[in-house]
Amino acid sequence: MLAHGEQAGLSRAPFPCRVLTGAGEIGAAKRLQGAAYVRHGHLAPEALTSEGWLPWHDQVEPGRVRWFGVHDADGLLAVARKIAGTVSLPPAAPAGISRDRLVEVSGVAKADHADRAATLHVYRGIYQDSVRRGEQMWVMSVIPALRATLERVAPGGISFGQRAVRVADVHPQVGPDVVVYPAWGLVDGFTARIRAAADRESDAGRRRFLLGVADFMDDGIGG
Fold first, then answer.
1. Nearest alpha carbon to residue 6 among 212, 221, 220, 207
2. Cβ-count burial of 101 within 10 angstroms (0-12 exposed, 13-18 middle, 19+ buried)?
3. Peptide bond before residue 14 is cis, with ω within 30 degrees of 0
4. What is the pLDDT of residues 48-103, one digit of tens each?
5. pTM to 2 decimals?
6. Distance CA 122, CA 187 (A)
7. DSSP structure string for 33-62
8. 164-190 burial string, b = 16+ CB within 10 Å, else e?
């Protein structure tokens, strides 16, 4: 199944993704996230907590959060989290979506030295976990650069709102120029929609790339 994925420069190794457990692992994920916010100019270093975490890190009850991390031999490369519970349905949500099967995907970040592929491995871990847990829909808030990446690698899989929202309106510590777009995606049929987008492509290289992404996301899902 992974033949297209290997052609697209993706493979299962060397970035296995798993759920992070314990205070040490989750604390390291929060530090990586905080460092990424500072590196990208979204937050001043002094705004982080003494542990190096985002100042709003404790606004969600720990029991509602599942942290995911990608490692190599030297340590943590990329992280993200899923938040369950009181997540609002996006305006474009189709009928039949249950709020208790809706999750927010947030906190996506990578180490400065990490390959961008590490982030895609995090998304695969989240996607496969959602399939196994019977979750129906993701909601997200994505910065413009991440929106461009998701539009490139998952056309049809993720939808985006057209109106940008200032993060400082929610978190005043963030710079006034930082904006995000609302985004959402249905878990069921996620990779099928990417393959459908590939079938519509006239460029053979682009078509192979998208088929590779879909194969990569599905690889090992039965394991």
1. 212
2. middle
3. yes
4. 999 999 999 988 888 999 999 999 888 899 999 999 976 666 666 677 788 888 99
5. 0.90
6. 15
7. HHHHHHHTTSS-GGGS-TTS--TTTTSS-G
8. eeebeeebebbeeebbbbbbbbbbeeb
